From TrEMBL, chain B:
Domain AttH: 62-235
UniProt-recorded name of the protein: Iron ABC transporter permease
Organism: Bradyrhizobium diversitatis
TM ranges: none
TrEMBL record, chain C:
Source species, domain of life: Bacteria
Keywords: Cell membrane, Membrane, Transmembrane, Transmembrane helix
Residues annotated as transmembrane: 240-263, 284-314, 339-363, 383-402, 408-436, 457-477, 689-710, 739-766, 778-799
Stored InterPro entries: ABC3_permease_C (IPR003838), Membrane_comp_ABC_pdt (IPR038766)
Membrane-related topology note: Multi-pass membrane protein
The protein's name: FtsX-like permease family protein
ABC3 transporter permease C-terminal domain ranges (all copies): 242-366, 691-809
């Protein structure tokens, strides 16, 4: 239904099929820019007054690069993440994900982009309560038509979810739920993993565990990783640490 | 003479359906193989008297007035028509009054051109006047279909007559003239149908000259040509194992007439009969062994395969012709169905005629 | 496709975890489809029967030629027309008496009978000869054969001694008619060479103009679009349809609440799906597919249930229709393909309508949730105001209809608008009551009780509306039936004045019986009656002959009466008119009515109006002697006897022995009364059954709403538990709340129901049957209904409350830990 979203050029298709045959995308050229944001702006109106949340954000993210984004409450961290994921539309500027201009896509096109190239992890674990852990892990890949049993098996092992596959979200702990959410996001082998306060609901020790796992998996897949967090401590464990201030990246 | 033509007539059709169908199918085509208990028997040596014999013979089980005409219109295009009135008695015995009358009447009418074939049928009970036949003045009718004599109609020639019929999408009206008397078929009008004695009374008027008009889909054309009437009655015309027949009436260009048919049997054998009528009206029966009737081509009509083209030879008369139908789709899809349509032939002799195929 | 299937699998997983909700949805759809299609099946069956009756060998469904001035004409005209190309077929119709019972005799001519005579039973070719040839056959429906107490093959005699041809069952034949060959009919009816009408078949070519063939002797009658039976029974079927529709809507209420709840619960799932890259269009399409698939499954089950409902109700319906209208409906259910398709269609359409709001919400849903829902009070207030406005609009429509409407449909329209308006205004009404409660509440728990009840309103309101409607209909129908029942029995007492009723098989026997009775000392009086038929303004009207006897003057019930009415009846120039006929002809006391009689027009002064419940035909009551003078053909076979009670059994036994009368021909008053009441009760059996069904469905609606609500209410209950109220106490409070709103609803249902009853009695009955009943209220019955409603609510509320009482503390704790 959404095969024709306009962002699958021949080149990517070629590239993707090559990746698929090699299972892991470690052969992506390292300096390859996965995400490029230029002069991005977004304005909300609150009680009739315009609030300029983003005022010209510029950002580049390479494959395999792990970046933390911090900033005070209301600085627009989540908004930036939503715009990159295509959950919301920008008012100005461009977002380029690999060869695709996200800001030019239709709603359906952005949905296709999320499905095929982006993994999303939220603070609230956003699992489907009526699906078992195994089904939660697999369903995005299934919907995207990119189900890879071997890769999911590896994810289950690396995330330590082996004994939980038949349980339902309400029957496992918060840390376990977030690990399932991360596994689901990575199951499609996305180009970019976006996480919005993924550890916000977890205690410190669990948060560190979960983030360590995520770092390893990102390294394994070679995708880009952008995490919004409050924790400067956690931010420090990633490759790069950016701060959003007054609608710009400092 | 074997005009066993009786077998031919699709009388069988509707009337048998009405009156005999309870037992029909078991015995010959459309119940014509019924036994004749209680009805008058056909015996040799009957003296025909006219006009009385033009009228009905209700003491016999079945009877018909059967007319076919080969015509051409003003442009020379060939066409044909059929007008048939059948009578059948549901029960033997004295004739009942009014609705209690046991006679059932049925009629078929059809017109055929190379590009179309139209037909219709109608039914009536005897006793109330909806259908019937009177010998003098001659009148055979059912509803508004009618074959009627005039003041000057000659009992010997049964001419002149007027003829009319109409269906939902066709109608016709003809006048029929003839200058030669009717011809007794078979042995002085006694036509034997099998070795076991089934027979009919049978005479014909093959010398009609026809003139009139024909309307199809509200388009009327004037037509002229020749017509052939058969009169036949019997109480048990077919043997139980006779399944159907292939029958031809031929108008030879020489003015001679030829009637031919073969009866088909359950065992696969068939028995040809024939009668040659000279242009002056003398008849001569043709021995069965002298007739070669060979189907040449079949047509798929109404889900059946029908032999509509024939090779016919009578060696003793150096007669050899190939017959072709004017319209191979001349199917009479009436209550009891059969194929009946005009044909033309060429070979040792040329001419036109009618072909009838039943029991397929 | 594969993607859609995966999305469907994710959506369906919700039901696996919420089986009760799933069951609710299915039950709603099944209930909606079942009752609706059950009623439709009955209606279809009846219509088929009317069609069959109308089409019997060319009844009203075929164009025909009749003589404008005479009942029959010469069959010579038939022959003339045939010979002019008219495709006509003769029919002779009359009545014969067999075993004391009058049956329609139809003579047909099968050879010319048009092939396209409606869906008339066709005689197979093979049967034709046995039908036509002596002795012929009498075709008869199996039911009629049984009614006549004859066996197939028998040749019963008719009253003048002539014998019918042997009877043969033709299963598809309409009941109460005997079909013979026209020749046989002419002989039996003693009408040689006469026919009643000519059916017109398909013309071969162009026949001559009618006038040129038969002049003015015959005129063409075009086929009726609607037969007399259909016209008469329309109201009855409209009644059934109204019930079916009501149940359908109540079922949809359930579906609506189930789908709405499921949608709310699946919102996070839908968001997750969208966040994971399923496009809005695909998700919405799959939502619709899911709904349609469920509707198909439920529709099929519903149809099966509908079939059983129809099969169960059909005998009563058939009895009602026979009793009320003389319509013959076969008791065996036979259904057409269209019925199944329509049932499935209505199920899918109903599901889509019920789910429309949820689906629209889904379509409009943004991916990013605005986490905080609007304050419920604000939302609820707006919703209450909107609904109340809608209610007022609907009430306005009702009053307009009441004022200007004339037809039966308008009557039902008033009813429907009344109920819809009441349903819409119910939440506002309850809100006001609860608010009042809140104002006077003392103590925090009481305050919470009222406030929380108000909050619960939006979740429960649909179920409560269903309950209100079902209850109101119940009150209305029960009141009407009870009113009718009392009126009818009182009326019957007056009407059945004589002690013994006799119906002789013919005039000769009538004379013999009379002279025999005169010899007996135990017979105090012989009251001869008579009954014949006439046409007034094209409608068949019964003329009832009343004897001039003090008993009648005293007891025969009249609604309106002119001075000296009974005395004025005697000379034969005055009549009483039945209520239905007076309404139909718009005739009042003092008016004059003209009745075409064999000897000329008979003018009658109307001196009384009487109730004639249960009679589909209009009726005039006149003096019996005058009737016989004007209509000499009137059979003089009916009589009533006045006999001392102790002599009745002996007299009946003697009569039966002397004249070989069966139970139908001689009966005592008690038997006749019991029979009438039995017919009456069966007439309303269907209404009562549908009534009960509807109440049942409303109960289910309440139960399912409470069940679905119970889960979502945990967040509201958990804080109370946390501050130290025990779970059983919580459950008890919840139960009290449910029962109190149910009680308030029931109390509103009572006046609404009485209004419904008034509509039924004063509008619907008058339009449908032509009679108006006095309006009575039966308080005990009302109390009974309220108690039943509360019991139903109790049962419905009990299950979720028991669950709450037994709930594990951890579940409540989770509300805090896991609140979303």
């Amino acid at each position: 239904m959404e095969a024709n979203n306009g962002f699958k050029t021949n080149a990517t298709r070629h590239f993707r099929s090559k990746c698929a045959t090699e299972q892991l995308c470690q052969f992506r050229p390292a300096p390859f820019i996965v995400l490029s944001i230029r002069n991005l702006s977004k304005t909300f109106s609150s009680a009739g007054e315009p609030v300029h949340v983003l005022r010209g954000v510029d950002l580049d993210l390479r494959h395999g690069e792990r970046v933390a984004l911090t900033g005070e409450s209301g600085s627009g961290k989540s908004t930036l993440l939503h715009l990159i994921a295509g959950l919301d539309a920008a008012d100005g500027g461009t977002i380029q994900l690999e060869e695709i201009e996200v800001t030019k896509l239709s709603d359906a096109g952005r949905a296709g982009l999320r499905r095929d190239r982006i993994g999303l992890v939220f603070q609230q674990f956003n699992l489907v309560p009526s699906l078992s852990v195994a089904d939660n892990l697999a369903f995005q890949a299934r919907i995207a038509g990119r189900h890879d049993a071997a890769w999911i098996k590896e994810l289950v092992e690396r995330l330590g979810l082996g004994g939980l596959l038949k349980r339902y979200p309400e029957q496992i702990s918060g840390g376990q739920q977030q690990r399932v959410a991360i596994g689901r996001a990575l199951a499609t082998k996305p180009s970019l993993l976006l996480a919005d306060e993924p550890t916000g609901n977890l205690d410190e020790a669990t948060a560190e565990d979960v983030l360590a796992l995520t770092r390893d998996l990102v390294a394994r897949t070679g995708c880009g990783f952008l995490m919004v967090t409050h924790s400067l401590h956690l931010a420090a464990t990633l490759d790069r640490h950016l701060t959003l201030h007054a609608g710009r990246i400092a | 003479m074997s005009a066993d033509r009786i077998s031919r007539r699709a009388f069988a059709a509707g009337i048998a359906a009405l009156a005999l169908a309870r037992r029909a199918g078991a015995q010959g085509y459309a119940g014509l193989g019924e036994t004749a208990d209680g009805f008058a028997k056909v015996t040799p040596g009957k003296a025909f008297t006219f006009p009385a014999d033009h009228g009905p013979h209700p003491e016999f089980r079945i009877e018909w007035w059967y007319l076919t005409a080969n015509l051409v219109d003003g442009s020379g295009a060939a066409c044909g028509l059929q007008w048939t009135l059948f009578r059948q008695a549901a029960q033997p015995g004295p004739q009942g009054e009014g609705w209690a009358n046991q006679q059932v009447w049925m009629a078929h009418a059809a017109v055929t051109r190379a590009d179309t074939h139209r037909f219709n049928e109608t039914f009536s009970r005897g006793g109330v006047g909806q259908a019937g036949v009177t010998a003098k003045p001659f009148d055979a009718w059912i509803d508004n279909w009618e074959m009627k004599g005039l003041e000057r109609t000659d009992d010997r020639t049964l001419a002149p007559l007027t003829l009319k019929a109409s269906g939902t999408d066709f109608s016709y009206a003809l006048t029929l003239e003839a200058d030669r008397p009717v011809v007794l078929q078979g042995n002085g009008g006694y036509s034997r149908k099998s070795e076991r004695g089934q027979a009919s009374y049978y005479y014909s008027q093959p010398f009609y000259r026809a003139r009139g008009n024909l309307t199809i889909d509200a388009k009327s054309v004037d037509v002229t040509g020749q017509a052939w009437m058969d009169r036949e009655w019997s109480s048990q015309p077919l043997d139980a194992d006779q399944t159907g027949w292939d029958w031809l009436s031929l108008h030879l260009a020489s003015g001679d007439k030829l009637m031919l048919y073969r009866l088909r049997q359950k065992d696969g054998k068939d028995y040809p009969f024939g009668n040659w009528i000279s242009a002056t009206g003398e008849t001569q029966m043709i021995a069965g062994g002298d007739i070669q009737m060979t189907p040449k081509a079949t047509a798929d009509v109404a889900g059946r395969k029908l032999p509509v083209e024939w090779q016919i030879a009578i060696p003793s008369r150096s007669f050899s012709i190939a017959c072709k139908p004017l319209n191979p789709k001349a199917w009479m899809g009436t209550g009891f169905s059969y194929w009946e349509g005009p044909i033309s032939f060429a070979g040792s002799h040329d001419g036109v005629g009618y072909l009838e195929l039943t029991g397929y | 496709m594969r993607r859609a299937l995966w999305i469907l699998a994710v959506l369906l997983s919700h039901w696996r975890r919420h089986k009760m909700q799933f069951a609710t949805l299915l039950i709603g759809l099944i209930a909606a489809t079942a009752l609706w299609s059950g009623v439709q099946a009955i209606n279809q069956q009846a219509r088929n029967a009317y069609d069959r009756a109308a089409a019997t060998f060319g009844g009203a469904r075929t164009a025909m030629l009749v003589a404008p001035k005479a009942a029959t004409f010469s069959q010579e005209l038939f022959v003339k027309l045939r010979r002019a190309g008219w495709p006509v077929s003769p029919v002779l119709e009359g009545r014969v008496q067999i075993n004391g019972r009058s049956v329609r005799l139809l003579g047909i001519e099968p050879v010319t009978l048009p092939a396209d005579v409606g869906n008339a039973p066709r005689l197979g070719a093979s049967d034709l000869s046995s039908f036509v040839a002596p002795p012929g056959q009498t075709l008869v429906a199996r039911e009629t054969l049984a009614d006549l107490h004859e066996a197939e093959g028998a040749a019963p005699a008719i009253s003048d001694g002539a014998k019918l041809p042997p009877l043969r069952v033709l299963p598809q034949l309409v009941p109460d008619v005997l079909v013979v060959d026209i020749g046989v009919a002419q002989r039996l009816l003693n009408k040689p060479d006469q026919v009643s009408r000519l059916l017109i078949g398909e013309a071969k070519g162009k026949p001559a103009p009618l006038a040129s063939v038969v002049g003015e002797q015959l005129q063409r009658v075009e086929p009726d679009a609607e037969t007399e039976l259909e016209h008469l029974t329309d109201s009855f079927h409209l009644n059934l349809t109204a019930f079916g529709l009501l149940s359908f809507f109540v079922g949809l209420f359930i579906v609506n609440s189930a789908v709405g709840l499921a949608f709310e619960q699946r919102l996070p799932m839908l968001r997750t799906l969208r966040a994971c890259g399923a496009s809005a269009r695909l998700v919405n399409t799959v939502l619709v597919i899911e709904l349609v698939a469920l509707a198909l499954i439920a529709g099929l089950i519903g149809l099966a249930c509908g079939y059983f409902i129809a099969a169960a109700l059909l005998p009563d319906v058939a009895a009602s229709l026979r009793g009320l209208y003389g319509a013959q409906i076969p008791g065996q259910l036979g259904l057409r393909g269209e019925w199944w398709l329509a049932g499935i269609g209505i199920s899918v359409a109903g599901a889509l309508v019920a789910a429309a709001t949820s689906l629209i919400k889904a379509v409009r849903m943004p991916v990013l949730a605005t986490a905080q829902p609007r304050a419920w009070q604000q939302r609820q207030r707006r919703w209450l105001i909107l609904q109340s406005c809608a209610a007022c609009a609907v009430f306005a429509v009702a009053s307009l209809l009441l004022h200007y409407g004339q037809s039966l449909i308008a009557g039902f329209g008033v009813l429907a608008a009344l109920m819809l308006g009441a349903a819409l205004i119910l939440p506002a009404f309850l809100d006001i009551i609860l608010l009042a409660g809140q104002r006077v509440a003392r103590g925090p728990l009481a305050l919470w009780f009222w406030a929380d009840s108000r909050q619960q309103l939006s979740g429960l309101s649909l179920a409560l509306m269903a309950l209100l409607l079902a209850l109101a209909v119940n009150v209305g129908v029960s009141t009407m039936v009870e009113t009718f029942s009392r009126t009818f029995i009182g009326w019957l007492d007056g009407r059945l004045a004589a002690d013994v009723y006799i119906s002789a098989s013919d005039n000769a026997q009538g004379v013999a019986i009379r002279s025999w009775l005169k010899e007996r000392s135990d017979v105090q009086a012989i009251l001869s009656g008579g009954r014949t038929e006439a046409q007034i303004q094209g409608q068949p009207v019964e003329l009832l002959g009343l004897p001039d006897h003090a008993l009648y003057r005293e007891r025969w019930p009249l609604l309106q009466v002119a001075p000296r009415a009974w005395t004025r009846l005697v000379p034969g120039n005055a009549a009483f008119i039945s209520e239905q006929l007076s309404r139909r002809l718009n005739v009042r006391l003092g008016d004059v009515i003209e009745v075409p009689a064999p000897g000329g027009t008979w003018e009658l002064d109307i001196v009384g109006i009487y109730a004639d419940y249960g009679n589909p035909r209009g009726q005039l009551a006149v003096n019996v002697a005058a009737l016989i003078r004007q209509f000499p053909q009137t059979p003089q076979t009916r009589m009533g006897l006045i006999v001392a009670k102790e002599h009745i059994p002996g007299l009946i036994a003697a009569l039966q022995k002397q004249f070989a009368l069966d139970d139908r021909s001689v009966a005592d008053q008690a038997t006749v009364k019991a029979e009438s009441i039995r017919i009456f009760n069966r007439t309303f059996a269907v209404t009562s059954a549908l009534n009960a069904f509807t109440l049942g469905v409303a109960g289910i609606a309440l139960l399912t709403s409470l069940l679905t609500l119970a889960n979502s209410r945990l967040p509201q209950l958990a804080p109370l538990w946390a501050i130290g109220i025990t779970r059983p106490r919580l459950a008890a409070i919840e139960l009290t709340k449910t029962l109190s709103v149910a009680l308030f609803t029931s109390l509103l249902a009572v006046p609404l129901g009485l209004l419904v009853a008034w509509c039924l009695i004063a509008i619907v009955n008058v339009k449908a049957f032509g009679w108006r009943l006095p309006f009575h209220v039966f308080p005990l019955q009302l109390v009974e209904l309220v108690v039943v409603a509360l019991l139903a609510s109790l049962v419905a509320a009990l299950l979720p409350m028991l669950r709450l009482a037994r709930m594990q503390p951890t579940t409540l704790v989770k509300v805090f830990a896991n609140e979303r």
